[in-house]
Amino acid sequence: MADDIHNNSKFKRKALQVNVAQSMISQYISVGETEMVTLQESHGRTLAQEISAPHPYPHFRRSGMDGYAIRSADTEGCSNDQSIWLQVIDEIPCGTVSDKTIIPGTAARIMTGAQVPEGADAVVMFEMTEIREDEGGSVVGLKRYIEIGKNLTPIGLELQAGELILSPGITISAGEISVLATFGIHHVAVYRRPRVAIFSTGSELLSVDEPLQPGKIRNSNTYMLASQVIEAGGEPVILDAIMDDLSLAREKVEEALHAYDMVVTSGGVSVGDFDIMGDLVRGDSVEMLYNKIAMRPGSVTTAAVKDGKLLFALSGNPGACFVGCELFVRPSIRGMMGDQKPYLTEWSGILGADYSKVNNFTRYVRGKTEIREGVVYAMPSGIDESGVMITIKDSDCLIVVPPGQQGMKSGDKVQMLMLR
Amino acid sequence: MADDIHNNSKFKRKALQVNVAQSMISQYISVGETEMVTLQESHGRTLAQEISAPHPYPHFRRSGMDGYAIRSADTEGCSNDQSIWLQVIDEIPCGTVSDKTIIPGTAARIMTGAQVPEGADAVVMFEMTEIREDEGGSVVGLKRYIEIGKNLTPIGLELQAGELILSPGITISAGEISVLATFGIHHVAVYRRPRVAIFSTGSELLSVDEPLQPGKIRNSNTYMLASQVIEAGGEPVILDAIMDDLSLAREKVEEALHAYDMVVTSGGVSVGDFDIMGDLVRGDSVEMLYNKIAMRPGSVTTAAVKDGKLLFALSGNPGACFVGCELFVRPSIRGMMGDQKPYLTEWSGILGADYSKVNNFTRYVRGKTEIREGVVYAMPSGIDESGVMITIKDSDCLIVVPPGQQGMKSGDKVQMLMLR
């Protein structure tokens, strides 16, 4: 069992910078299949088609008020002392089109959202009018000049026909759904959610419904990863945890790479005697991309590829596993759905507390964002050893602490990767 | 058809401030039913139980490295010139518990995550050791003092038994799922998603799959609202749009209030001739809470209650409808799921462009957040008339412009309500 650690390949790993590893991976990501869903099912999905306006919007001259459609010229010179009176020649509820034309001296009663009749060039709201009945019907009185275009939304104010509105890769939410419905797009092309197989390795793992045993822990990473995969837009498939058995692991990984779009494992990537995922990626069954990243936590984060499909072997430490998934798995899932910005959003902020841990690797410190007087503060979430699980729930960002000999001080500028 | 608008109740509405209306509504919100879901189904749901740690975490003294469990005292005085050699008396993979005790002069090979054996008080990593085989087995050599507790995570570092970890009303995501799995909580009590019936009113509405017709528009608000309801955690139920017919609307609203937890409508709340929702809430079938809010867009936003259930009658203008849903419907849904912070998160920021529109009502301007050098900028999204639909998709916040005689300038401090 004695190792000559200086000649053993598992100790001699070349550390890549995070961005180098990310761009290495991006070469293996191609946009996946699409499927059609109904508009109502499209919330939260990723658009897979370009949407251009099939017609201008609004597509008719729309009244912005309940009132009277008039000709502006008719109101020239009128004032509190000098009312003008217009013959009301039609009533126009929403959804109907008047066949009358507003000629000088006439007006039409009109509702918000209705089509303004020919001849009219403005709408005056009810509250600025008075009504009288005479033998010929109603007349409406005005005491103020109404400028051309008042309360009248012109055709194409928001969009011209043919204008590009939505591009593939965006996440569909309320605003996008509103656009799709407006243009009658009742079935939408979206990217199929990449199916991501997830399993943990390690003989210490109990399933979540087993009673606790000495020296063992429950398999929490699998469920955490499943949640992260859903958040990224993927469909997690939880597979049984694998005991520390290399040939079994190899078989399970190959099966999963064949059946699913991506495979993510946790555990077994360190330098221990049973670190089977580390052994596996150094073997012939997959092509290793990297097995060390210049980051903490998660320096042992590993990736490999087989038949064009990605295998991510993340650390078994919950904190390291979480970070590895956000930095590498998430952008891979987003990329398969055509997201043009697949990485976590970067913010700049002010470090809200001293952070003394130093390292020659970049550190991704779990943190919480606070906004005070318009300034972004990044507050470290507390103990952030790679093995620590509890602070994940309290974090909405990863604070990027660059490598260096000294820690950072409260008030220093920091880069933040936003988790939500 | 002539109105005496000065005596007509639909023109004489008392405008409430947004926060007054919100607190009025909150009196009608009670926490809803709960249901059990599996851990895997719990992502995105709202927790309905208190979770305290049933045992300390970690629940055993855990090795933080692959290496050797030792007694710190044995390494006192050792240096590069003065190795000490310890007899390796056991090998401890993860998940197993050693029955040996580390006595002076001995060590146990141990893997990351494994239980540290009795007698040991530190772990030294492989990379700091050398191994020799002698007749009695392996001995491990060290050249440095290893302090007590090194690479050893004590019992309860993260959590003591009984410590409160999660409270009802939080949204379950990766970090929470990790906690639940760790403590073996494989079924979770969550709040049932409130079922929210949604319909639009207006004879101008085409269904989303109908061809365009002059003067008519497609019913987009219903789908937009459904998306907002999902985002808030509710379950939308889309009902058929209602033509401008008061008695039909009254019947449909009553049916929906009976069958669902909440009803949201769009359209028909202005002062026009066919504003049936406005007429309906002024009638006897429901108890009106308010029908005017001192805000733009959406001043006609209306709420009523019947048999303890809330009816929100929102403006038919897309922008006003969107804002009304975020300010009133969303917190009602969140409140029914025990969320202690049901309202949109408030941020402070710097207005990124002049905003010249003024009003005697508070204005909720759709905007986009930009972070520059750690400072939050709120950029108005463009045309934000209440009838405008297109900018909803480009917005991640509502910029709060207080009532006043003059507009706001680029560089002014503003309050923002965060949409995402």
UniProtKB/TrEMBL annotation, chains A, B:
One of its GO terms (cellular component) is cytosol. Keywords: Magnesium, Metal-binding, Molybdenum, Molybdenum cofactor biosynthesis, Transferase. Residues 197-335 form the MoaB/Mog domain. Its cofactor is Mg(2+). GO terms for biological process: Mo-molybdopterin cofactor biosynthetic process. InterPro entries: MoaB/Mog-like_dom_sf (IPR036425), MoaB/Mog_dom (IPR001453), MoeA-like (IPR038987), MoeA_C_domain_IV (IPR005111), MoeA_C_domain_IV_sf (IPR036688), MoeA_linker/N (IPR005110), MoeA_linker/N_sf (IPR036135). The keyword rRNA-binding does not apply. It catalyses: adenylyl-molybdopterin + molybdate = Mo-molybdopterin + AMP + H(+). Pathway: Cofactor biosynthesis; molybdopterin biosynthesis. GO terms for molecular function: metal ion binding; molybdopterin molybdotransferase activity. The keyword Transferase applies. Its EC number is 2.10.1.1. SUPFAM superfamilies: MoeA C-terminal domain-like, MoeA N-terminal region -like, Molybdenum cofactor biosynthesis proteins. It is an enzyme of class 2 (transferase). Catalyzes the insertion of molybdate into adenylated molybdopterin with the concomitant release of AMP. Belongs to the MoeA family. NCBIfam families: Glp_gephyrin, molyb_syn. This is Molybdopterin molybdenumtransferase. It comes from Paenibacillus glacialis.
